Amino acid sequence: MLQYETIFITDAAATEAEIDDLLKAYEQVVGTAKGKVLKVEKWGKRKLAYPIHRQEEGSYVLMVIECPADLVKELERRYRMNDRILRYLTVRVEHESQLGPSPMMRPRPEREEPVPEMPVMP
Amino acid sequence: MRMQSRAGGGGGRSGSAGPRGRDQGRKKGYKKKFLFRKKKFCKFCDEKVAYIDYKDVRLIQAFTPERSKIFPRRISGTCSKHQRKVMQAIKRARLLALVPFLAD
Predict the structure, then answer these.
(1) Looking at domain B40-104, which CATH architecture does it have?
(2) Which of A58, A92, B6, B74 has the fewest CB atoms within 10 Å distance of its CB?
(3) Per residue in B1-28, pLDDT tens?
(4) Domain with A45 in it: what CATH number?
(5) Which residues in chain A are closer than 8 Å to B85, comparing Cβ atoms?
């Protein structure tokens, strides 16, 4: 069994309870296929970098799961069937840092901290 | 970034030394502008980064300046191995609308 990291974006109109329901449903799907849910993160509402289906905002949910490969297909099929889900992405876990809290969960950096240095485009 | 600050700037065609004192005693010429440029290096190799996270928006944004184009290797100095990872991460982040495909 492999580990996968999967993110889906629901439209901003979905309430907290609805998202929890979705999550519960997906966790169940993973459970029935003898998979394991290793991590769940709800990033909450974020502004999308560009509109998707005319939505400017979306709620992000991240799951890290360990499951047989078939399950990914099934999970993505369910993502597609759900109208509330704007976008999804599933990738293999390549590095152990993906199992820990993601950069999104980090507290907002203070002002003092220098912006990652990079030259301006000439 | 450290090494780059002067490279594109000015684009001066004549060799007039301007405020830089060290150029004064030397012959006029095109080449001398580059004499003191620091060697580029891959900052990921420097820090031994094994995985570049597409969820790290701040890092991704540092590599997609202005028009949100991917910052080229020839300027950033990133090695090909890490540039590939950066590219992969940027593309994933774009798909998830974490960063724009094109900033206007």
Answers:
(1) Irregular (4.10)
(2) B74
(3) 444 444 444 444 444 444 555 555 555 5
(4) 3.30.70.60
(5) none
Strands A2-11 and A55-67: antiparallel
Q: What is the pLDDT of residues A32-74, one digit of tens each?
A: 888 889 989 998 899 999 999 999 999 999 999 999 988 999 9
Each residue of B62-97: b (16+ CB within 10 Å) or e? Answer: bbbeeebebbebebbbbeeebbebbbebbebbbebb
Q: Domain for residue A121, yes or no?
A: no
> How would residue B40 be classed by pLDDT, with cut points 50, 70 and 90?
confident
Residue A112: inside a domain: no
The DSSP element (H or E) to which A37 belongs, if any, is strand A36-52
Query: CB–CB of A119 and B75 under 8 A?
Result: yes
The pLDDT confidence band at residue B41, using thresholds 50, 70 and 90, is confident
